[in-house]
Amino acid sequence: MADESVSARRFARESMAVLDCLTKSAHDDVVRAAELIADCVRADGVIQAFGTGHSQATVLEIAGRAGGLVPTNRLSIADLVLYGGEPPSALDDPLLERRAGVAARIYELAAPRPQDLFVVISNSGVNNVVVEMALHAKEHGHHLLAITSLAHTRAVPAGHPSGRKLADLADVVLDNAAPRGDALLELPGGGAVCALSTLTGVLLVQMAVAEASALLLAAGERPPVYVSANVPGGFEGNLELEKRYAGRIRRTAS
């Protein structure tokens, strides 16, 4: 018989309880995040989303998806190869995200404009490249929205030489409510299983997009939103919307 302390039923129950709580506890911060997003769209800006590891799942929730905003860009360590001329073997380095200068190069390749909003996602909020990207964005005058676990980031030391963490640098922080280490269900004898941050990160992103869309509609502006490419006319309509941001957003086969 399966251990009842670790089961599908328990993960569903506990994760749904966190999601339910988050819809209330994060409301004010979501409104503030939505204001940053709406202001960016109004100013003809692009939302530049960055994360590493599994935080890229939440980046994908922001950039280039059906029902999402068109002026969005996915930044990635892979950009060093795709757009920066580095050999594919550069990505074999497991410590690449800890190396100084990586975020600055990714920023440079994106060529953002001053009105662009940066959204940086990291459960721990302490990895070198994440903090470096946040610092670089702030130094260049961008507003910064962070999605991170405050429980985790407060429980671990800073990894960047500055001693700063992602949450220290953001204009608005959306706390994903994930526990230290991300995994929700404790295992007998130590350790834990079943990560939470992707579920909560997706919820926060979609709440913020909904609220930003409401702000734009209230101002008489139609949000530039993607239609699924798998409905008639969707692909062609999306191409028309993307023309406004030509050369500023990347859409690859991935």
TrEMBL record:
CDD domains, alphabetized: SIS_RpiR
Residue ranges that the Swiss-Prot or TrEMBL entry lists as coiled coil: none
Lineage: superkingdom: Bacteria
Keywords associated with the record: Isomerase
Positions of the SIS domain: 37-223
InterPro entries according to UniProt: RpiR-like_SIS, SIS_dom, SIS_dom_sf, SIS_GmhA/DiaA_subfam
A molecular-function term among this protein's GO annotations: isomerase activity
SUPFAM superfamilies for this protein: SIS domain
Protein name per its UniProtKB record: Sugar isomerase domain-containing protein
Organism: Streptomyces coerulescens
Source species taxonomy: Bacteria, Bacillati, Actinomycetota, Actinomycetes, Kitasatosporales
